[in-house]
Amino acid sequence: MTKSTMKPNRRAILTGGAVAGLATAASAFPAPAVADGVRKWRMLTSWPKNSPGPGQTAERLAKRINDASGGKIAVKVYGAGEVVSGFEVFDAVSGGTAEMAHTAAVYWTGKTAAAAYFTTVPFGLTSREHMAWIYHGGGQDLWDRLYEPFGVKPFMAGNTGMQMGGWFKKPIRSVDDLQGLKVRIVGFGGDIYRRMGAAPVSLPASDIFTSLASGAVDGAEFLGPWIDEAFGFYKAAPYYVWPGFNKPNGTGECLIGKSLFDELPADLKQVVTDACMAEHAFALAEADWKNADALDRLVRDRGVELMALPQDVVARARTEAGTVMQEALDGAHLGPEILASYDEAQRKARRWAEVGTAAYQTMRGA
Q1: Which pLDDT tens digit goes with each residue over 107-126?
Q2: I need a labelling partner for 174 at 20 to 30 A (CA). Which of 75, 81, 85, 215 fits?
Q3: What's the whole-number mean pLDDT along residues 236-249?
Q4: For residue 336, is the peptide bond before it cis, meaning its omega torsion is within 30 degrees of 0?
Q5: CATH code 3.40.190.170 for 11-160+249-290
């Protein structure tokens, strides 16, 4: 995990190979046309084009903006790798190569450590709790301030819900089974797995299946049953572990060049804001519905073996999580402020859940 005591800046993040890659992309990627009052925006994504879940969310978001703006904003979607890799879309928006992107904040912890809190963190807020924090608990303001040095404006825009613990080629029965295991995982979970003896590997979505199939990784965490099934992970790793302590939420983000957004008239700013909110709610409901069907299908038809994450792994992960996140945020840009706000949101959510959702699910029989 990259940690910095200095405020990030746009020049600092566009270095080395990223500069060369984005420069090449920019030279082959014509500047957007603005004619007859129509703003032509390019949306780069971190997902294979139109893939289930986030890929489809990106397409729907573009359509929402196109339709609600009455054609005043025309968004064209590009899948991961069509212009830049899925892990370069933030830099592309920050550097002006593209107007917007659809991605996940958890990918940018190497740029600014606190970014993970705007997707999900281990043992953190659930999807609805996270929405409450962003919309009503000051989370959006902190997110805006976190990305401001990069010239990027973020929005919640899509959610894949509760995540699973991942796919493994061999059963995980104790912490001992993690020793030396190569696991595709992103966010703070990678550091937690490292402390438990595994070797975390960062891979974009498009590379996960081939890496599992070839043995380049021994396990992989991505999203939930519906999207994981669509990517075919069950064909390469038959053991599906639950629960997903690393990602109890799946917030996706829409990124827009800040100066571009600031220059929009008020009505079009509202169009973009409302489109992101609508897609976020729609996608979360979609994920909950389709995950339930896919989980049944994976077990019934795909030969997948569900395995509860062993208690010693959960206990060890919980112990390591606090240390990992505290160390990552210590001295990081806005780290202490974001951590304090998030912890307060989690305290409120936990207390309400005790007599609300969690209590009812227990009473109902989950």
Answers
A1: 999 999 999 999 999 999 99
A2: 215
A3: 94
A4: no
A5: yes
Query: How does pLDDT run across 159-198, given as a tens digit for each residue?
Result: 999 999 999 999 999 999 999 999 999 889 999 999 999 9
Strand partners, 199: 182
Phi, psi of 7 (to 5 degrees): -65, 135
**Beta bridge partner(s), residue 201:** 184
Question: What single letter denotes the amino acid at residue 258?
Answer: K
12: which residues sit within 8 A by CB, 6+ positions away? none
Of 49, 48, 31, residue with least CA distance to 40 = 31
Cα separation, 82 vs 247, whole angstroms:
28
Q: What is the pLDDT of residues 287-300, one digit of tens each?
A: 999 999 999 999 99
Tell me the C-alpha distance between 267 and 46, whole Å: 28
User: In this structure, is the dihedral angle defined by the CA atoms of residues 15, 20, 21 and 22, taken in order, positive or negative?
Assistant: positive
Q: d(Cα 77, Cα 82) in Å, to the nearest integer? A: 10
Looking up tokens 């965490």 gives: 221
Confidence tier at 243 by pLDDT (50, 70, 90): confident
Compute the Cα dihedral for 78, 84, 86, 91 and give only its sign. Answer: negative
* Distance of alpha carbon 128 from alpha carbon 75, whole angstroms: 28
